[in-house]
Amino acid sequence: GKLLWKRDFGTGFIASPAVSGDVLVVGDFDGNIFVLDAKSGEQRWKKTTEGEISGSVAFYEQSVLATSTDGNLYCFGIEDGNLKWTYQTNDQVRCSPTVAGDRTFLGGCDGQLHVIDLKTGKSAGQPLPLGGPTGSTPAVLGKKAFVPIMDGDVLAFDYQAGKLLWRHTDEE
Questions:
Q1: Quick one: pLDDT at residue 170?
Q2: How far, rounded to the nearest angstrom, does the alpha carbon of residue 167 sit from its chain's CA centroid?
């Protein structure tokens, strides 16, 4: 229960922090992504996007993946913060990126499920239509991706084949 360190950023946070090794990453209301030493709390680097960071970051190899309400997914080098690539959607992204193998999955306010190749930062096929916006983080199991949308439906896709497997709507 002993306080190890504390930092005042002068901003607010709604995204959960994420930890990988000795690196702690958190994003704020103002679109800032802070990378800290998890043991000391010292800032290693900071990057700024054009929108709020609503979802937790994800890690892939030596990269940090961060979504922003500016509609982009950013891939930064974990050690130095250098921008490796940016993937742009057509609206806000409020979810966390889901990493499965060498792909990441984003549900967006643009009403699409995006599957992105983590090596290139390019779409791994046409975005899959959801029929409405989502702020939810997709779940992935094998070649299936699951995502709820804001109108209450839950969808399952075979993302490799690019097809809808089922859609659940609670009639009540």
A1: 86
A2: 23
**pLDDT score at 127:** 96
Question: Quick check: 23 and 41 in contact, CB under 8 A?
Answer: no
* Token pair recorded at residue 7: 């930092």
CB 166 within 8 A of CB 154: no
**pTM for the predicted model, two decimal places:** 0.95
CA 151 to chain centre: 21
CB 163 within 8 A of CB 140: no
Contact criterion met (CB below 8 Å) for 20 and 59: yes
CB 117 within 8 A of CB 124: yes
Across-strand partners of 58? 65
Strand-pair partners of 37: 23
Q: Which amino acid would we find at residue 67?
A: T
Q: For 37-90, what is each residue's pLDDT tens digit?
A: 999 999 999 999 999 999 999 999 999 999 999 999 999 999 999 999 999 999
In angstroms, the CA 15 to CA 169 distance is 28
